[in-house]
Amino acid sequence: MIESLSLLGAGGHPARGTDFTALDIRTTGLRPGHVVELAAVRVRPDGTVAGELSTLVDPGPGVPPGPVALHGITRADLDGAPAFGAALGSLLNLCRGSVVVAHDLPFVASFLDSEAARIGARVPVLPGVDTLAAARTAVRLPNHRLATVAPAFGIAARPGRTALSGARTVAQLAVSLFGRHGFTFASPPVLPALPQFAAGPLRPRADVPAGEPGWMAEAVERVAIGPDGDAYLDLLAGVVADRHLAPDEVAALAGLAAEAGWPAERVRSTHERFVVALREVAERDGVVTAAEARQLWQVATALGVADAGDLRPTADGRPARVLVLGTTAAADRLRARVLAEGVQLAKKLTASVTHLVADPSVPANEPRLARAAELGADVLDVHSAPVALGFEPPLAPAPPAPAPERARLPKVVGGRVLMGAGLLLMFFTVVGMFAGTPLAAGIFFAFFAVGALLGGWWLAEPAPR
Fold it and tell me: How many CB atoms are closer than 10 A to CB 363?
């Protein structure tokens, strides 16, 4: 149903004039099975939203909704919702004439293909872009989960539980990738001619904005998952980010791992690796509060790896908390660098912010610049920040150039002394010759006198300017 397009940096086919339709789904599990929520957001290249679609999807009578504790969709929510086939027409109408984008496109496409095959729908192949793969190319981050990539790209809205919140974030990410980061298509996308489909009734789910992220959510952003991270680890990170891990959430995660065929030892090692990474992030800040230690121990205990979460509170040191303002690619790269270095990336200006960095797109009269200085934060520009934050060593200062006159002074003095000696020797030579000194001796001493005069003049000659 969706074919992934190859992307290039500068030099390919620009996306100018191309609309993007961002997709996100909620599913019954990690393997292609059933979609229980579908959302799409169409945006123009300038970021203008051209249309949205959101609906719960009934996978069939009596089909379990999957991990309710993770996506929040119950079987009662699905009763009366349209089937996938009834929602497909509205989805294709929104996608017509656009390039589809999704974070982890292969995962989304596999579920949509499975649903289309189940109902026997023959859908033309739509061109698509994986924003997860593109983000990995654009910036270096500890992990490239959507909740981590969004703040690194300066996207204010955090993806929440609903598919619509995720699709909105992906739409903004696509605009940024093809806009200020300059991604282009390796070949022009082929947009299939789609007819106008009959639009059936939809049942959108209420979109609850994501809450203010706490320490755990920010720590998860800095946990290194790596390019081989899997959907299970992404779900685990998302659940942990809400500050606590309830027993039903742990049970839901265990059920997903069992469905995916994971042995118990693999689940435990994944949990242990994740908790150890969280602990390292906490210790790297320089300050470990009692609340942070308690939260990490609770998460580690819930996951069955309590020993890995042994974190001791400390009282000294001050963690760096950096707020980066700006809408340029340089600002995005610095936000990503902050996370990659294990430093807290602030979302707004508070008294805990230690450094505020502004790029050239931030006006000089931006109120937060003056307010940051009042709060005692260091205000930096985006180019000097890597050195000021300790990410890069300072440039070695060039050795001071010696003062020209002072450097030449010994030569000038020596030259003048030599000229004086030559004049004195010439004087005595002339006097000696008048007094009867042999001619050969006079010529001998005159030769040395002239040599001293010439040598002294060469040493004392002013340097060319």
Answer: 9
